[in-house]
Specification:
Number of helices: 2
Strand content: 5-15%
Helix content: 10-25%
Strand order of the largest sheet: 1-4
Length: about 110
Amino acid sequence: MAKHHPDLVMCRKQPGIAFGRLCEKCDGLCVVCSSFVNPHTLVQICDECNYGSNENRCVVCSNPGVTNAYYCRECVQQEKDRDGCPKIVNLGSTRTDSFYERKKYGFKKR
């Protein structure tokens, strides 16, 4: 996901024993390149990203996790699965802007 959105920042700390999760919306995505093909290796995230209220949350969008997250085969061959924890840490400018636009005009979430 961070490949297509350059303002998103990944954690990149040393992964622990916890496995990453994906929500219904992100189910089947590779967490690095956002492809839907060839799930290959389970994603491991660091202990800080799996602590407290972040436990069992989606690696990409922080919604409640439903399924395990996987790296695709191409990312494993390019060793992108060894770059560290892939959890997205910040919200991104688009999501932040939409929050303040909703607040400005008084729109409520459905």
